[in-house]
Predict the structure.
Amino acid sequence: MEVFETDKAVAYLKSRNLIKEYKKAKSYILGGHFQQVQLKKRHPYSRGIWYFRITRKYRAYAKKEQNRLVVFEISDHQ
């Protein structure tokens, strides 16, 4: 599975110094280790939004298109 980011998500990661943690989470997804980042589908399931853990505090939200995730938002999970 491939992972892509929008410009908005990249700007958020840079402003909060989360680039290193995000790259680590992304490498787990690319390696197929979905449990490491707790990749899950968000309710309501019909919207097709997925999320995964970057750190304990931050989550990345993405849309699944074919065999790739497009990260469109990073959120403070707290």
Residues 2-76 form a domain with the YaeB-like fold fold (CATH 3.30.2310.20). The mean pLDDT is 95.
